[in-house]
């Protein structure tokens, strides 16, 4: 049985739950770490014959990935941050980076 398959209760095989797979398991399936946006873009390129121009021209608007094909989330509101919000975000980022370097959660 392939690394990404599992036996289901009805005796058939199906795809494993990726939330239950390790990074090594995912890599054994030939997958590489990538962001959601990169995965969406890769699927759009696959669908359009690996032509970025065709992804841009895609008119299949009933595809659930269509709004995201250009690498952005059009549903996400972009709001300007206040100086206070920007400072708080910078402090959170610095604390997160410090924790990562020190190995703290």
Describe the structure.
This protein is mainly alpha-helical and 105 residues long. The protein folds into two domains: 1-33, no CATH class; 35-105, no CATH class. The chain has four helices and two strands; from the N terminus they run E-E-H-H-H-H. It has helices at residues 23-28, 36-47, 52-57, 83-102; strands at 5-7, 13-15. The chain has a two-stranded antiparallel ribbon with strand order 1-2. A hairpin with a 5-residue loop joins strand 1 (5-7) and strand 2 (13-15). The longest helix is centred in the C-terminal third of the chain and has 20 residues, at 83-102.
Task: Give the SSE layout.
Layout: E1 5-7, E2 13-15, H1 23-28, H2 36-47, H3 52-57, H4 83-102
Antiparallel strand pairs: 1-2
How many structural domains can be distinguished in the coordinates?
A: 2
The strand count comes to 2
Mean pLDDT: 89
Q: How many angstroms does the end-to-end distance come to? A: 36 Å
* Strand order in the largest sheet: 1-2
Strand fraction equals 5-15%
Shape label: flat
- Describe the biggest sheet? 2 strands, antiparallel
- Helicity, as a percent range: 40-55%
Task: Summarize this entry quickly.
The chain has 105 residues and is mainly alpha-helical.
Key structural traits:
105 residues; mainly alpha; two-stranded antiparallel sheet; 2 strands
């Amino acid at each position: 049985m392939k690394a990404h398959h599992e036996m289901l209760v009805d005796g058939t095989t199906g795809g494993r739950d990726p939330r239950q797979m390790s990074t090594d398991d995912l890599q054994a399936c030939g997958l590489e770490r990538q962001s959601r946006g990169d995965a969406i873009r890769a699927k759009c390129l696959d669908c359009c014959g690996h032509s970025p121009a065709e992804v841009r021209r895609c008119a299949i608007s009933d595809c659930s990935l269509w709004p995201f094909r250009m690498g952005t989330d059009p549903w996400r509101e972009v709001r300007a941050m206040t100086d206070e919000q920007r400072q708080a975000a910078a402090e959170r980022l610095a604390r997160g980076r410090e924790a990562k370097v020190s190995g703290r959660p």
